[in-house]
């Protein structure tokens, strides 16, 4: 895989994170300008996976393109995922995994350890847990972009380290529950945009699971959450970007900061 393709991987994960987050001005601007649709299709095509490109096309087909439709998207998001709308579709890994409070706490510590190993931390004021879908997607996006830079720099040791980290994170965390999350979206909502987006994420993760030759043990059923009630229902649930020192750049990349232009 080329450095450019890793950049497109990074962009797909970033766009998916943005789209599954609470709709905000950054997403609205990207949708209204057409940049979201254009970049999603471009990056999916660049990876050479027909199924992934088909799902990207389905997302574009269902994406809102005017202010009224974006307002409806916000209402749908709140109803499905937001605490203010009583949303009951979880976006946290722990909610899809079996285990006790102790084992779940260990899982959260392991996820936090991945972030810390790459000098990443939650933005100040972010009340999300580390196992939130948007944050995990952003983390893989960061590693993919870092891989591109290291490939261009000829740093074989660095590439190996970051490659191993991506494989381990997919095997131990993200790859274990995106399939279950997709099934939940398909079963519990008829909002076509989010159904298509969940299929895109699941296919993107599956593609990377094959790419990094790992075998995550997928969660088959959603048990009662061992961490139910442990997060702050009065807090801000916006999924902010992991705070970090920016990775070195290989020049102008076809993506920007989460809260900035693409």
Automatic annotation (TrEMBL):
It comes from the Archaea. Keywords: Chaperone. Pfam families: Nitrate_red_del. Residues 215-262 are annotated as: Disordered. SUPFAM superfamilies: TorD-like. This is Dehydrogenase. It comes from Natronococcus pandeyae. The lineage of its organism: Archaea, Methanobacteriati, Methanobacteriota, Stenosarchaea group, Halobacteria.
């Amino acid at each position: 895989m080329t450095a450019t393709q890793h950049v497109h991987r990074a962009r797909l994960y970033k766009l998916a994170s943005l789209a599954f987050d609470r709709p905000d001005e950054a997403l609205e601007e990207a949708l209204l300008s057409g940049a979201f649709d254009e970049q999603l299709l471009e990056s999916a095509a660049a990876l050479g996976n027909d199924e992934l490109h088909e799902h990207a096309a389905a997302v574009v087909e269902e994406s809102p393109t005017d202010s009224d439709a974006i307002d409806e998207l916000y209402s749908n998001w709140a109803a499905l995922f937001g605490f203010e709308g009583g949303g009951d579709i979880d976006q946290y890994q722990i909610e899809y995994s079996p285990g006790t409070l102790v084992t779940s706490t260990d899982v959260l510590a392991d996820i936090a350890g991945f972030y810390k190993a790459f000098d990443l931390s939650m933005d100040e004021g972010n009340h999300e847990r580390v196992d939130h879908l948007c944050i995990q997607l952003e983390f893989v996006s960061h590693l993919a972009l870092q891989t591109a830079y290291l490939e261009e720099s000829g740093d074989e040791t660095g590439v190996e380290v970051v490659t191993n980290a991506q494989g381990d994170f997919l095997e131990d965390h993200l790859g274990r529950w995106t399939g279950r999350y997709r099934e939940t979206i398909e079963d519990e909502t008829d909002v076509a945009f989010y159904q298509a987006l969940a299929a895109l994420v699941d296919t993107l993760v599956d593609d990377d699971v094959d790419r990094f030759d790992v075998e995550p043990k997928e969660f088959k059923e959603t048990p009662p959450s061992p961490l139910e009630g442990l997060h702050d229902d009065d807090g801000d649930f916006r999924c902010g970007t992991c705070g970090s020192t920016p990775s070195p750049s290989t020049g102008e990349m076809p993506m920007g900061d989460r809260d900035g232009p693409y």
